[in-house]
Amino acid sequence: MTTRFTVNGKPVSVDKDVKLLRFLRDELHLTSVKDGCSEGACGACSVIIDGKLVRSCSVLTSEVAGSSILTVEGLPKEEMEMFVSSFGEAGAVQCGFCTPGMVMCAKALLDQNPDPTDREIRHAIRNNICRCTGYAKIVKAIQIVARKRNGDSDLQDDRSWKVGTRVPRVDVRDKVTGKGIYPDDIYLDGMLYVVAVRSKYPRAKVLGIDIENAMLVPGVVDIFTAEDIPGSVKVGHIIQDWDAMIAVGQITRYVGDVICLVVAESYMAAKKAKKLVKVQYEELECVRSPYEAMKPDAPLVHEKGNLLGHTHVSRGDIDGALKNSDFVITEKFFTPWTEHAFLETECAVSVPMEDGGVKIYSTDQGVYDT
User: Fold this and answer.
1) From the CB of residue 54, how many other CB atoms can be counted at a distance below 10 Å?
2) How far apart are CA 84 and CA 171, in angstroms?
3) I need a surface site. Which of 19, 129, 192, 314 has the fewest CB within 10 A?
């Protein structure tokens, strides 16, 4: 069944019923439409369908038959310049991953309400997540866009770009227009896609990995396990003691340890095959907290033990301070887990080089820890 609709004013058709997000990205390469969660939770993939804001990861192509779809790439030039200059002026761009989705959210709002209040703007972007700017600057940017659309503000940027002057980030334009490329936005001719089959238990012995049915999925090229990697590959930021892949006979260390890698000609084929890989486990008692890990009979997370490192900090005259204190309180102190909560898709793209090496584009913060 062929589904037809328009994207940025151009007619398109699709024979397979897939998520609109995947069609826009994988087929049309409209990479302003970001894949932040694939579950309709973050708003990074927001597009406008027949005048309404929609998360493209939450609808199928069959559901938009006959519709008109707008992405950031389809905004009129003058309107795009308003968003670029306004987001730059307000300082509303940092990592930029959420920005195109915010732009589409603002566009949908301003088309319906040309002069929104601060409260109305905040309500409109409530489902679009940003982990960088704190939203206040995004709200300010949308207010500036509204004034420019209403003819109340000059579009010209007359900043002199000299020491002591306030200027926008140099990457504002690329991030607002969606032209900034993140690793997940890279598409190459003949590119293969890799997805990981991960452990569903925090601590379990892998007894077997059955890939027979997964290999039968059309488009699957191969499935690799730890046995296919020469030697012992261990990773780690402080101590390299974490197995890159868990082999048959080894024990997993957390929910998410990689069991095998599915390689296919398309992302959808790799995802389909992943579900058909059957892993046999022997579930074991796990360690749930640092205090459990400290017990003498605690299971070993790593072969050398459960202590990653020991640091003792002393500043000043500790004994004197305790002796002269009116009160001394001894207690256990807890700090919360810290998660960066970044929206950008964790991804790496490897490109073979003519000299036999491999160039890697990665979302990591440092190339030496990749």
Assistant:
1) 21
2) 10
3) 314
80 and 69 in one domain?
no
Matching residue, tokens 């101590």: 239
CA distances from 187 to 29, 184, 294 (A): 8, 8, 47
pLDDT digits (tens, 9 = 90+) for 41-96: 999 999 999 999 999 999 999 999 999 999 999 999 999 999 999 999 999 999 99
d(CA 220, CA 212): 11
Residue 309's pLDDT is 82
pLDDT above 70 covers what percent of the chain? 96
Distance of CA 293 to the CA centre of its chain: 31
Q: Report whether pLDDT(194) > 90.
A: yes
Please choose, from the candidates 39, 81, 73, the residue with its C-alpha nearest in 3D space to the C-alpha of residue 59: 39
User: In the listed set 73, 96, 111, which residue is the last one of a domain according to the structure?
Assistant: 73
Question: With bands split at pLDDT 50, 70 and 90, how would you rate the model's confidence at 97?
Answer: very high
223 within some domain? yes
Q: Is residue 21 situated within a structural domain? A: yes
Query: Quick one: which H or E segment has residue 204?
Result: strand 204-210
Structure tokens belonging to residue 199:
């452990």
Q: Give Cα 363 distance to the centre of its chain.
A: 9
- The chain-wide mean pLDDT, for the chain, equals 92
C-alpha to C-alpha distance for 83 and 79, rounded to whole angstroms:
7
Pair 23, 46: CB distance under 8 Å: no
